[in-house]
Amino acid sequence: MNKDIFLSNSFGNKKEKFIPINRKNIGMYVCGPTVYDDPHIGNARPLIVFDVLYRVLKCKFGEKAVTYVRNITDIDDKIIQSSNEKKISTNELTTKITKNFHDDCIYLGCEEPSFEPKATENISSMIRMINKLIQKEYAYLNNQHVYFQVKKFKDYGKLSNKNLDELIAGSRVEVSENKKNPEDFVLWKPSKDNEPFWESPWGKGRPGWHLECSVMSKKYLGDKFDIHGGGRDLIFPHHENEIAQSRCANENEVFANYWIHNGFITMSNEKMAKSQGNILKINELRKKNNGQVLRLALISSHYRQPLDWNNDLINQCQNTLNKWYQSYVDLKNPKLVPEEYLDPLYDDLNTPGYIANLHKLFEKSQRGEEKDKEIFVSACNFVGLLTQTKNEWLEGKKSKLDISEKEILDKIKERNKAREDKEYKLADKIRNELLDKGVLIEDTDGKTTWKFK
Ligand SMILES: [Zn+2]
To answer: What is the dihedral sign for C-alpha 125, 129, 184, 242?
Structure first.
């Protein structure tokens, strides 16, 4: 496809034409999950956003031209705390949560990244990078801790476009008597008794969180690469710190060319937070919803905008997919999506614009021939929708009902009896009860049938 891709670069805060360093070998690094608790809907957003971007890049540059790296943070304070609470080892906890995370990725229809490195498998490279930073005098050792001295890196704050004072004022900076300056951040710290540790020149300890992404992106994508992504909350301090570490250790002017950040998710217009008790886990949503419904909901807003998660959104997406499945056909060979329909995705991943195009293609498929249906299904597949057969979709819906098929038929009998007895109120009540459970009953030609709402 000849069209260019445009992306909103957080670095410089403007929309820019995407020009890869090497169009045959494009690198994208996205900060992955810290595996201390089951992923929630806020974690799902970057998974889907960067999955769609990965698909768009492959469409433009070729299936094999894109390397997508997404790490797993499997050592961290939160992991240690959670495993202590659960009285299991950190390894046991991270193995379990990583598996749950992978199940969620499959449920949401995400393609696998090219590499998925774990922090604990890269500790020796982290120690090497710390050594380099100490040698170059960007980092210092104090009382078994190694800190990065932020003042030594002149471009610190350029990504978030703030100066050091503003950054410190706007965030909770960890206070420690071991630091020379409050803004310095830890590269290595000693492990307490009973905490996991690695041997290092500075004693038994473990790395600071930010370091792993500098090390693992370098390993798979080199000192300088094309796209670095993550949630907006990672801009400061995580991404600022990654830039500082990588640019100083690698002695170069650029770490990543394009910084792409997705917006937050709110829950019925409230901030999602543990203290609010409104954290919605993906595995909870799985009990009631098909993964495609979540996927459509997550791309219904532009990735940079906040997305409000509420029942109306889920119902709307459920209804849209119910409708779209009317045009489902099994694809022997996927059809190419006409270029003009892909336009919104090339323009800063405008997924709402693409969904509008899917609606147009659906209308056409309802009027037109088999070929139009094939194009419609291919266009849905492009963003990971209509990926199940119609049967799987219907069976999936059945399995997520709170009521068995036998119970539905019994209720229908009960309702028919009530209608014969002219007990219309009771009949309506039964009908509404079924509706609440997602079952719609219809009376045609004296016969009652049911279908999914
Ligand atoms: Zn990171």
So the answer is: negative
Position 285, amino acid = L
Tell me how far the alpha carbon of residue 148 lies from the centroid of ligand 1, in angstroms.
Answer: 16
pTM value > 0.85 = yes
Q: What digits encode the pLDDT tens for the residues 232-263?
A: 999 999 999 999 999 999 999 999 999 999 99
Q: How far is the CA of 217 from the centre of ligand 1 (A)?
A: 9
User: What is the whole-number distance in angstroms between the Cα of residue 242 and the centre of ligand 1?
Assistant: 7
Q: Which residues contact 54 (CB under 8 A, 6 or more apart)?
A: 28, 66, 68, 111, 113
Q: How many CA atoms, within 13 angstroms, populate the side-chain half-sphere of residue 412?
A: 18
Contact present, 73 and 212 (Cβ < 8 Å)? yes
Q: Report the separation in Å between the CA atom of 243 and the middle of ligand 1, taken as the mean of its atom positions.
A: 10
Name the residue among 1, 94, 111 with its Cα closest to residue 49. 111
Tens of pLDDT, residue by residue over 323-356, are: 999 999 999 888 889 999 999 999 999 999 999 9
